[in-house]
Amino acid sequence: MFTACTIAGSDSSGGAGIQADIKTMTTNGVFATSAITALTAQNTTGVTDIFNATPEFLGHELDAIFTDIFPDAVKIGMVSKQELIETIANKLKQYSAKNIVVDPVMVATSGARLIDEQAIDALKTKLLPLALVCTPNIPEAELLANMSIQNETDMEKAATIIESTYGCACLCKGGHQINDANDVLVEKGQVHWFYGKRIDNPNTHGTGCTLSSAIASNLAKGYDLETSVQRAKDYLSKALAAMLDLGKGQGPMNHMFDLQGEFAQ
Ligand SMILES: Nc1ncnc2c1ncn2[C@@H]1O[C@H](COP(=O)(O)OP(=O)(O)OP(=O)(O)O)[C@@H](O)[C@H]1O
Ligand SMILES: Cc1ncc(CO)c(N)n1
């Protein structure tokens, strides 16, 4: 059994954050462990409160995980405070963590801001350099590459800038703003496009969390990065295509459509 660790925030409505990550990792056939960075009071319509872990407590969670069930891959999601990012970076270095996927979560699908201004700096200078790959959506890629993105050529350019600036491969996701499901991966200067079929489903709460956890799960199983991204996109598309409809806002997708099926391999 391969293992993956998610370091992220809890989403009380279960569609994003830690909950999405654990469901995704489970359905993708790896054993999930979790270090919770924050509790959010959240549902499909918005976030009403955030309660951050202390850096000490987060450090203890990571010590407990890394000294026992050492993860074959690590996914990092919402981390809103600079001190929490520093704790994560220090622990990942201390334990020589591998296959690190950073989803630079900044804003929830519902529009709520999930990161402090100072934390963005720490993300850039301390966390991204440790990552194998980061997975920004368009607004996040604009901020990390310091440019505006209007089309697929801009996505490619931004991903190239992000890889050379922060030293990790970059998967820039088109889903959010450019109206398609096409994402571009820049790895060691090589550009690879993943063309997805856009699914007409308004319930996209947690798509970013799900994609990054599925990538981490596949890296944990030993697939290379390109294959891991392709498999993760296939999983996400099928979870969206299951057309779950829960809640009053943009609802979650069905992570469990394939328990113990093709994606567990
Ligand atoms: N309607 C859709 N149909 C198919 N794929 C989609 C759709 N919407 C998004 N995707 C895909 O989902 C993945 C996540 O992209 P997205 O831009 O939604 O992430 P995100 O904005 O980080 O998500 P979140 O809102 O959870 O933070 C990408 O691979 C994207 O192409
Ligand atoms: C806890 C959490 N992490 C990430 C996201 C981004 O979708 C969210 N809405 N909530």
Could you tell me the number of beta strands? Answer: 9
Q: What bound compounds does this protein have?
A: adenosine-5'-triphosphate, 4-amino-5-hydroxymethyl-2-methylpyrimidine
Q: Tell me, what's the shape?
A: globular
The total number of structural domains is 1
Q: What helical percentage do the residues reach? A: 25-40%
Query: Secondary-structure element order, as H and E?
Result: EHEEHEHEHEHHEEEHH
- Beta-strand share of residues: 15-25%
Q: From the 3D structure, determine the CATH topology.
A: UDP-N-acetylmuramoyl-L-alanine:D-glutamate ligase
Our measurement of the CA-to-CA distance between the termini, rounded to an integer number of angstroms, reads 11 Å
Instruction: Give the structural class.
Output: alpha/beta
Rg over CA atoms, rounded to whole Å, is: 17 Å
Considering the protein shown, what is the CATH homologous superfamily? Ribokinase
Q: Major sheet, described briefly? A: 9 strands, mixed
CATH class: Alpha Beta
Tell me the strand order in the biggest sheet: 3-2-1-4-5-6-7-8-9
- What is the helix tally? 8
Protein name: Hydroxymethylpyrimidine/phosphomethylpyrimidine kinase
GO molecular function: ATP binding; hydroxymethylpyrimidine kinase activity; phosphomethylpyrimidine kinase activity
Family: Belongs to the ThiD family.
GO cellular component, one term: cytosol
